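Sorry to interrupt, but I need a hand with the structure work. Could you write out one complete protein record for me, on any chain you like? Could you add the entry underneath, on a fresh line?
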Amino acid sequence: MNITKQIQEQFTAGIVYGDLVESDGALLLPAAYVAGGGGGASDPDLGDGGGFGLAASPAGAWVISDGKMRWKPALSPTVIIAGGYLVAIAYFFFASRSERFRARGRNS
């Protein structure tokens, strides 16, 4: 079996969606972000080679209860902290530029 066919067989809905879980009368269908890539090469002197990588992280879950279906996103502490850092960096960057701009206007 060639490598492309093996890779195609690995990418199924089971990678993105987990098994249904029942909790307090509701059905939960967990989902994940999944990304992958691969490549290969052949060289007469060095031979054949290839590689493949796959990354996944939780995205959230579909919650089915009372005849309704809703999406509940997963909250990643890493993403929340990184977002806080970005806001702080943007604040200090624009505050310092704003102060320099005002100072330049007073000196003219």
Observations:
- Residues 75-108 form one domain.
- The chain has two domains: 1-74, 75-108.
